[in-house]
């Protein structure tokens, strides 16, 4: 697979969802067994860029719960911002635009794109989104597991008293938050969102939506995955599903409990989306350090194995470049364009 490795080395490769350890250990420049993604592994695996997420676990919908979530969001975005620098022969930069990501790649620097996982982090105040955007965030996942003040989640939290639904999809606050995200250039991420939430987000967002770490429900019947109608709606909006390396989202668990999920299973999901809606609407994410890892792609250092499998399936260089980052950069630019228009109008 010499051609695949040469191609991989030439690509701008972007992983759209990576978690960070918390509390922060300031070890991003260290090659450590404690992380599936650190900068040495990115360099070794030819991974150019990563969206590093401030993950906010769902808690109670109370003033105290919201205040704690807001504080954690700020602190985690600060920690992600603090990952920039030069050590051990590597340079990492915080990138807030598609152009900055491309310039970092051209220089040979690693690109860090901050993100937020769970709209719980804004409490009940969409005004906080401007603060988070100023800290570099480029997308926010509307929910995690458990309903929040913005929207219903795909997986309710019974331990938090969740009923199957809370708002019937988006709340009024959720629609306000999406409008604010559009004005700021924050992509709307519908991974973890209930089907109703996702379909309503397509209708309400002025920019295409993205599922930054989800898979195909037809291939694996998991509530976190998108069904055919959702994939169709996402594509019609110009949006994107980023297939993720979570074993339980890629292949059902057999009755005997034994399961080995690998890179071929991952690319099966890419194949399915391509056949249904085209190359422009699918990309790649790992959910590393948040539970993601499969045979052949156990950490960022093994990222080239995906390119090898894509070449083996017959995809050409331009298609593989689209999967590995081109499609995601297109969405970032569309969000930037809408935000620029909103600022000009104001």
From TrEMBL:
<dbReference type="GO" id="GO:0070573">
    <property type="term" value="F:metallodipeptidase activity"/>
</dbReference>
<dbReference type="InterPro" id="IPR008257">
    <property type="entry name" value="Pept_M19"/>
</dbReference>
<protein>
    <submittedName>
        <fullName>Membrane dipeptidase</fullName>
    </submittedName>
</protein>
<dbReference type="GO" id="GO:0006508">
    <property type="term" value="P:proteolysis"/>
</dbReference>
<dbReference type="Pfam" id="PF01244">
    <property type="entry name" value="Peptidase_M19"/>
</dbReference>
<dbReference type="InterPro" id="IPR032466">
    <property type="entry name" value="Metal_Hydrolase"/>
</dbReference>
């Amino acid at each position: 697979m010499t051609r695949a490795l040469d191609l991989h080395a030439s690509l701008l490769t972007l992983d759209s969802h990576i978690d960070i350890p918390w509390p922060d250990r300031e070890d991003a420049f260290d090659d450590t067994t404690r992380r599936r993604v650190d900068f040495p592994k990115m360099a070794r695996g030819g991974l150019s860029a990563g969206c590093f997420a401030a993950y906010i676990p769902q808690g109670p919908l109370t003033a105290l719960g919201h205040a704690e979530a807001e504080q954690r969001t700020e602190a985690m975005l600060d920690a992600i911002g603090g990952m920039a620098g030069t050590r051990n022969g590597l340079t990492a930069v915080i990138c807030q635009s598609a152009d900055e990501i491309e310039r970092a790649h051209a220089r040979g620097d690693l690109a860090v794109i901050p993100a937020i996982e769970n709209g719980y982090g804004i409490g009940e105040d969409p005004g906080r989104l401007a603060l988070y955007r100023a800290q570099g965030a480029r997308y926010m996942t509307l929910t995690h597991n458990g309903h929040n003040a913005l929207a219903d989640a795909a997986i309710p939290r019974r331990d938090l008293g969740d009923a199957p639904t809370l708002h019937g999809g988006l709340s009024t606050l959720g629609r306000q938050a999406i409008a604010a995200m559009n004005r700021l250039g924050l992509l709307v991420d519908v991974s973890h969102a209930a089907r109703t939430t996702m379909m309503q987000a397509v209708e309400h967002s002025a920019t295409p939506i993205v599922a930054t770490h989800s898979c195909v429900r037809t291939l694996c019947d998991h509530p976190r995955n998108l069904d055919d109608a959702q994939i169709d709606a996402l594509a019609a909006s110009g949006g994107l599903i980023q297939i993720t390396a979570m074993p339980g989202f890629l292949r059902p668990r057999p009755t005997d409990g034994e399961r080995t999920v690998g890179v071929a299973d991952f690319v099966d999901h890419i194949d399915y989306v391509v056949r249904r809606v085209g190359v422009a609407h699918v990309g790649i994410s790992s959910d590393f350090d948040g539970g993601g890892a499969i045979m052949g792609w156990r950490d960022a250092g093994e990222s080239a194995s995906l390119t090898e499998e894509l070449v083996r399936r017959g995809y050409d260089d331009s298609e593989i470049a689209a999967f590995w980052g081109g499609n995601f950069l297109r969405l970032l630019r569309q969000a930037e364009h809408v935000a620029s228009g909103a600022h000009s109008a104001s």
